[in-house]
Amino acid sequence: LGLFWFGRPQSAGVMYHEPEVFTTEMCRASAASYWQAGVDGIYLWNNQLIPFNRDIDYDRQQWREIGDPRLLVGRSKHYLVDNPREFDSQQAQELSGPAIPAGPLPVNLNVAGDSAEIPIDVGDDLAAGMADGSLESAILRLMIVNLTAQDDVSFVLNGTSLDGACKSRRLLYDDCWLEFDVSDGLMKQGWNSLGLTVNTRNPYVAAPLKVESVEALVNYRD
Predict the structure, then answer these.
(1) 219: left (phi over 0), alpha (psi -120 to 50) or beta
(2) What's this model's pTM, rounded to 2 decimal places?
(3) Contacts with 5 (C-beta within 8 Å, 6 or more apart), sequence order
(4) What string of pLDDT tens digits covers the 222 residues of the chain?
């Protein structure tokens, strides 16, 4: 588990004030997915360099939680679908390492009729959180480059349309961020499937729609 990498979309930092390291919520999410998958332990790689390389005030709170799955229950998390674009094969070769395998993202959708299925792994037992009232919200967040108001795209999560679940749409230059409220049982523990289908494209934009980020934000009440 590495806690910093070669960059999130710039708009994520501008719009959501994310640092250039994994947040505490991202670390919890990554660890929760590993524990849910049945790992025997979690290895931290070069994370002692974070205060030197990124933030001298880094508080190491993540390290105190991720080693015990029981400490992660009921704590807010921020899941990210893999996108290895930030650390490509050329960079790996420069570091004398192996090429980074392709991930689910990015995905290009060029014309009407194009579609994609994107897997989302969630380690939290959302049903239990709903039942005991501890779950405050579950948000599905997407960032699609070149998406405009004249593009018509359908979103389906685990077979259920998200047409009425969109709670916000924010645009920064070419980056369009969408947030869907999936608190009411639409998202589940384990693997989820997000389907996207292009119905119509903006006729004035030749560039493809590029799905750059798919995220799940699971928030608990204090």
Answers:
(1) beta
(2) 0.88
(3) 22, 86, 87
(4) 555 555 678 899 999 998 777 888 999 999 999 999 999 998 887 777 777 777 788 777 778 889 999 999 999 999 999 887 655 444 444 444 555 556 789 999 999 999 999 999 999 999 999 999 999 999 999 999 999 999 999 999 999 999 888 999 999 999 999 999 999 999 999 999 999 999 999 999 999 999 999 999 999 998
